[in-house]
Amino acid sequence: MKTSLMTAKRSFAAILLCLAAVFAGCKGGEDVPKPDPKDGTVSVTGTAVVGQTLTANSVQADFPFTGDFTWESSASGAAAATDWTPISGATGENKNQLTLTDSLKDKYVRATRTNSNNKKVSSD
pLDDT (tens digit, 9 = 90+) per residue, 26-57? Predict the structure, then answer.
């Protein structure tokens, strides 16, 4: 979820561009990896604007969640990017909410949680 203000049209266009980039990278006959429903899901709700609060939610499946939520930020926002870093002070017990600050402006944020199968599940 990007923390800058965008119109609905620009957001939709950005989503389409991201999807086009994902599918352009696929070779014929390859499947796009899909999350395993047994791992559970993590989602984020709220308005991605500085000063607003985002809330992370998780739904357990076959493997219960064992850890607390961790919030991470990235300049690129790609799920497989290596620049996802924990947001200082936004981890630990009952930290399912994150208030967006100026330091997160123009960055992507996500919530993650680890399940009992030692799989990190994220909201991206």
Answer: 333 344 456 677 888 899 999 989 999 999 98
Task: Concatenate the DSSP letters of all residues of the chain into one string.
Answer: -B-S---HHHHHHHHHHHHHHHHHTPPTTPPPP---GGG-EEEEES--STT-EEEEEEE--SS-B-S--EEEEESS--TT-S--EEEEEEESTT--EEE--GGGTT-EEEEEEEBTTS-EEE--
Q: Which amino acid is at 60?
A: Q
Distances (CA, A) of 50 to 38, 71, 120: 34, 15, 27
CB contact at 8 A, 116 and 10: no
For 101-115, write each residue's pLDDT tens digit.
Answer: 999 988 999 999 888
Q: 108-114 and 70-74: which strand pairing?
A: antiparallel
Sheet bearing 70-74, strands edge to edge: 85-91, 70-74, 108-114, 120-122
Average pLDDT, the chain: 73
